[in-house]
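Human:
Take a look at this sequence-structure pair and walk me through the C-alpha coordinates.
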Amino acid sequence: MSSTEQTADALEAREVTISFEGLTAVDSVNEKLQPGEILGLIGPNGAGKTTLVNALTGFQMPAAGEVRLGEKIVSGLTPHWFRRHGVARTFQAGRLFREMPVSENIEVAAVSLGLNRKKANAHAMELLEWLGLADRAKLPAGVLPYTDERRVGIGRALAMNPSFVLLDEPAAGMSDLECDEIMKIVSEIPSKFGCGVLLIEHNMRVIMGVCERIHVLDSGKTISRGTPQEVQNDPAVIKAYLGHG
Protein backbone atom coordinates (compact mmCIF):
# COMPACT_ATOMS: atom_id res chain seq x y z
CA MET A 1 0.00 0.00 0.00
CA SER A 2 1.14 3.56 -0.63
CA SER A 3 1.45 6.38 1.87
CA THR A 4 -1.74 7.97 0.62
CA GLU A 5 -3.78 9.14 3.59
CA GLN A 6 -7.04 7.34 2.98
CA THR A 7 -10.19 8.68 4.54
CA ALA A 8 -13.55 7.07 5.21
CA ASP A 9 -15.29 10.45 5.00
CA ALA A 10 -17.45 11.70 2.15
CA LEU A 11 -16.24 13.90 -0.70
CA GLU A 12 -18.74 16.72 -0.92
CA ALA A 13 -19.69 19.73 -3.03
CA ARG A 14 -21.69 22.33 -1.12
CA GLU A 15 -23.32 25.03 -3.23
CA VAL A 16 -20.34 24.92 -5.59
CA THR A 17 -20.36 27.62 -8.25
CA ILE A 18 -17.68 28.04 -10.91
CA SER A 19 -17.55 30.89 -13.41
CA PHE A 20 -15.34 31.73 -16.37
CA GLU A 21 -15.24 35.36 -17.54
CA GLY A 22 -18.71 35.99 -16.23
CA LEU A 23 -20.21 32.76 -17.56
CA THR A 24 -21.43 30.29 -14.95
CA ALA A 25 -20.25 26.77 -15.73
CA VAL A 26 -21.42 25.19 -12.45
CA ASP A 27 -24.27 26.79 -10.53
CA SER A 28 -24.81 26.06 -6.81
CA VAL A 29 -24.33 22.29 -7.09
CA ASN A 30 -24.64 20.04 -4.05
CA GLU A 31 -23.53 16.41 -3.97
CA LYS A 32 -21.92 13.99 -1.55
CA LEU A 33 -19.96 10.95 -2.72
CA GLN A 34 -19.90 8.25 -0.08
CA PRO A 35 -17.29 5.50 0.31
CA GLY A 36 -18.27 2.30 -1.47
CA GLU A 37 -20.90 3.73 -3.81
CA ILE A 38 -20.96 4.37 -7.56
CA LEU A 39 -22.46 7.75 -8.41
CA GLY A 40 -23.13 8.71 -12.01
CA LEU A 41 -22.71 12.30 -13.21
CA ILE A 42 -24.42 12.90 -16.54
CA GLY A 43 -25.68 15.71 -18.71
CA PRO A 44 -25.47 17.08 -22.25
CA ASN A 45 -22.20 18.42 -23.62
CA GLY A 46 -21.27 21.63 -21.84
CA ALA A 47 -23.35 20.78 -18.77
CA GLY A 48 -20.44 21.37 -16.37
CA LYS A 49 -19.57 17.78 -15.49
CA THR A 50 -15.80 17.91 -15.95
CA THR A 51 -15.68 21.40 -14.43
CA LEU A 52 -17.33 20.06 -11.27
CA VAL A 53 -14.87 17.15 -11.15
CA ASN A 54 -12.03 19.67 -11.54
CA ALA A 55 -13.27 21.42 -8.39
CA LEU A 56 -13.57 18.12 -6.52
CA THR A 57 -9.95 17.22 -7.33
CA GLY A 58 -8.15 20.54 -6.86
CA PHE A 59 -7.87 21.60 -10.50
CA GLN A 60 -10.42 24.41 -10.18
CA MET A 61 -11.17 26.85 -7.36
CA PRO A 62 -14.90 27.44 -6.84
CA ALA A 63 -16.05 31.04 -7.12
CA ALA A 64 -18.58 30.28 -4.38
CA GLY A 65 -19.51 27.36 -2.17
CA GLU A 66 -17.03 24.82 -0.90
CA VAL A 67 -15.55 21.38 -1.42
CA ARG A 68 -15.25 19.22 1.69
CA LEU A 69 -13.44 16.01 2.49
CA GLY A 70 -15.19 14.86 5.60
CA GLU A 71 -15.53 17.97 7.75
CA LYS A 72 -12.46 19.68 6.28
CA ILE A 73 -12.95 22.48 3.76
CA VAL A 74 -10.51 21.68 0.94
CA SER A 75 -11.59 24.11 -1.77
CA GLY A 76 -8.61 25.41 -3.71
CA LEU A 77 -6.03 22.98 -2.32
CA THR A 78 -3.68 21.53 -4.91
CA PRO A 79 -4.30 18.40 -6.99
CA HIS A 80 -1.27 16.86 -5.25
CA TRP A 81 -2.92 17.45 -1.87
CA PHE A 82 -6.07 15.71 -3.07
CA ARG A 83 -4.07 12.76 -4.40
CA ARG A 84 -2.19 12.39 -1.11
CA HIS A 85 -5.47 12.46 0.81
CA GLY A 86 -7.20 9.75 -1.17
CA VAL A 87 -8.90 11.52 -4.09
CA ALA A 88 -7.78 10.28 -7.52
CA ARG A 89 -9.11 10.84 -11.01
CA THR A 90 -8.76 9.96 -14.66
CA PHE A 91 -8.89 12.34 -17.61
CA GLN A 92 -10.62 12.26 -20.99
CA ALA A 93 -7.16 12.45 -22.55
CA GLY A 94 -5.12 9.56 -21.21
CA ARG A 95 -2.10 11.63 -20.08
CA LEU A 96 0.15 8.59 -20.24
CA PHE A 97 3.93 8.71 -20.55
CA ARG A 98 3.92 7.34 -24.07
CA GLU A 99 7.57 6.23 -24.28
CA MET A 100 7.41 4.52 -20.89
CA PRO A 101 6.31 0.88 -20.50
CA VAL A 102 2.70 0.36 -19.50
CA SER A 103 3.64 -1.10 -16.12
CA GLU A 104 5.86 1.87 -15.29
CA ASN A 105 3.02 4.27 -16.07
CA ILE A 106 1.19 2.69 -13.16
CA GLU A 107 4.27 2.28 -10.97
CA VAL A 108 5.10 5.98 -11.14
CA ALA A 109 1.71 6.85 -9.65
CA ALA A 110 2.36 4.65 -6.63
CA VAL A 111 6.00 5.72 -6.24
CA SER A 112 5.00 9.39 -6.30
CA LEU A 113 2.98 8.77 -3.15
CA GLY A 114 5.65 6.85 -1.26
CA LEU A 115 5.56 3.19 -2.28
CA ASN A 116 9.01 1.71 -2.91
CA ARG A 117 9.82 0.60 -6.45
CA LYS A 118 9.65 -3.15 -5.81
CA LYS A 119 6.24 -2.95 -4.14
CA ALA A 120 5.04 -0.48 -6.77
CA ASN A 121 5.97 -2.92 -9.53
CA ALA A 122 4.14 -5.78 -7.82
CA HIS A 123 1.09 -3.57 -7.29
CA ALA A 124 1.17 -2.43 -10.92
CA MET A 125 1.24 -6.00 -12.17
CA GLU A 126 -1.70 -6.94 -9.95
CA LEU A 127 -3.67 -4.02 -11.37
CA LEU A 128 -2.74 -4.89 -14.95
CA GLU A 129 -3.80 -8.50 -14.40
CA TRP A 130 -7.17 -7.32 -13.08
CA LEU A 131 -7.53 -4.88 -16.00
CA GLY A 132 -6.75 -7.60 -18.54
CA LEU A 133 -3.54 -5.89 -19.65
CA ALA A 134 -0.82 -8.03 -18.07
CA ASP A 135 0.41 -9.17 -21.50
CA ARG A 136 1.00 -5.53 -22.47
CA ALA A 137 2.98 -4.58 -19.35
CA LYS A 138 6.33 -4.10 -21.09
CA LEU A 139 5.01 -2.38 -24.22
CA PRO A 140 5.47 1.38 -24.60
CA ALA A 141 2.20 3.02 -23.58
CA GLY A 142 2.17 4.92 -26.86
CA VAL A 143 1.43 1.78 -28.89
CA LEU A 144 -1.74 0.93 -26.97
CA PRO A 145 -5.10 1.34 -28.65
CA TYR A 146 -7.29 4.08 -27.24
CA THR A 147 -9.49 1.69 -25.28
CA ASP A 148 -6.50 0.16 -23.48
CA GLU A 149 -5.18 3.64 -22.66
CA ARG A 150 -8.41 4.27 -20.76
CA ARG A 151 -7.92 1.13 -18.70
CA VAL A 152 -4.33 2.07 -17.90
CA GLY A 153 -5.65 5.45 -16.71
CA ILE A 154 -7.96 3.66 -14.30
CA GLY A 155 -5.03 1.57 -13.09
CA ARG A 156 -2.93 4.68 -12.48
CA ALA A 157 -5.70 6.25 -10.42
CA LEU A 158 -6.19 3.10 -8.34
CA ALA A 159 -2.43 2.71 -7.79
CA MET A 160 -2.69 5.76 -5.54
CA ASN A 161 -4.75 3.76 -3.02
CA PRO A 162 -7.62 6.26 -3.12
CA SER A 163 -10.76 6.46 -1.05
CA PHE A 164 -12.51 8.16 -3.96
CA VAL A 165 -11.85 7.81 -7.67
CA LEU A 166 -13.44 10.08 -10.27
CA LEU A 167 -13.61 8.61 -13.77
CA ASP A 168 -14.08 10.99 -16.71
CA GLU A 169 -15.76 9.14 -19.60
CA PRO A 170 -13.85 5.84 -19.36
CA ALA A 171 -16.10 4.19 -21.98
CA ALA A 172 -15.94 6.98 -24.58
CA GLY A 173 -15.53 5.65 -28.11
CA MET A 174 -15.81 2.00 -27.12
CA SER A 175 -17.71 -0.83 -28.76
CA ASP A 176 -20.50 -2.61 -26.89
CA LEU A 177 -18.11 -5.43 -25.95
CA GLU A 178 -15.50 -2.97 -24.69
CA CYS A 179 -18.19 -1.13 -22.73
CA ASP A 180 -19.15 -4.41 -21.08
CA GLU A 181 -15.53 -4.82 -19.98
CA ILE A 182 -15.43 -1.29 -18.56
CA MET A 183 -18.72 -1.88 -16.74
CA LYS A 184 -17.25 -4.97 -15.11
CA ILE A 185 -14.13 -3.05 -14.05
CA VAL A 186 -16.04 -0.08 -12.64
CA SER A 187 -18.58 -2.26 -10.83
CA GLU A 188 -15.78 -4.12 -9.03
CA ILE A 189 -13.92 -1.03 -7.78
CA PRO A 190 -15.92 -0.42 -4.56
CA SER A 191 -15.64 -3.99 -3.30
CA LYS A 192 -12.09 -4.66 -4.53
CA PHE A 193 -10.51 -1.33 -3.55
CA GLY A 194 -12.93 0.17 -1.02
CA CYS A 195 -13.42 3.29 -3.14
CA GLY A 196 -16.35 5.53 -3.78
CA VAL A 197 -16.65 6.08 -7.54
CA LEU A 198 -17.94 9.14 -9.37
CA LEU A 199 -18.51 8.24 -13.01
CA ILE A 200 -18.92 10.79 -15.80
CA GLU A 201 -20.21 8.99 -18.85
CA HIS A 202 -22.31 9.67 -21.95
CA ASN A 203 -23.01 6.00 -22.56
CA MET A 204 -26.32 5.54 -20.80
CA ARG A 205 -26.09 1.74 -20.88
CA VAL A 206 -22.94 2.00 -18.79
CA ILE A 207 -24.47 4.55 -16.41
CA MET A 208 -27.67 2.58 -15.93
CA GLY A 209 -25.75 -0.67 -15.58
CA VAL A 210 -23.36 0.27 -12.76
CA CYS A 211 -24.60 3.36 -10.89
CA GLU A 212 -26.64 3.28 -7.71
CA ARG A 213 -27.43 6.99 -7.90
CA ILE A 214 -27.30 9.51 -10.74
CA HIS A 215 -26.86 13.31 -10.67
CA VAL A 216 -27.90 15.17 -13.82
CA LEU A 217 -26.52 18.58 -14.80
CA ASP A 218 -27.74 20.86 -17.57
CA SER A 219 -26.14 24.26 -18.22
CA GLY A 220 -24.36 23.97 -14.88
CA LYS A 221 -27.51 23.39 -12.82
CA THR A 222 -28.78 20.25 -11.14
CA ILE A 223 -31.96 19.16 -12.89
CA SER A 224 -32.40 15.69 -11.40
CA ARG A 225 -31.00 13.33 -8.77
CA GLY A 226 -32.05 9.83 -7.85
CA THR A 227 -31.91 6.17 -8.76
CA PRO A 228 -31.37 5.19 -12.40
CA GLN A 229 -35.08 4.46 -12.77
CA GLU A 230 -36.11 7.78 -11.23
CA VAL A 231 -33.74 9.77 -13.41
CA GLN A 232 -34.62 7.87 -16.57
CA ASN A 233 -38.29 8.78 -16.14
CA ASP A 234 -37.76 12.41 -15.07
CA PRO A 235 -39.36 14.82 -17.61
CA ALA A 236 -36.58 17.36 -16.96
CA VAL A 237 -33.97 14.81 -18.02
CA ILE A 238 -35.93 13.78 -21.09
CA LYS A 239 -36.24 17.43 -22.11
CA ALA A 240 -32.52 18.11 -21.57
CA TYR A 241 -31.49 15.18 -23.77
CA LEU A 242 -34.21 15.21 -26.39
CA GLY A 243 -35.19 18.88 -26.44
CA HIS A 244 -38.84 18.32 -25.68
CA GLY A 245 -40.98 17.27 -22.78
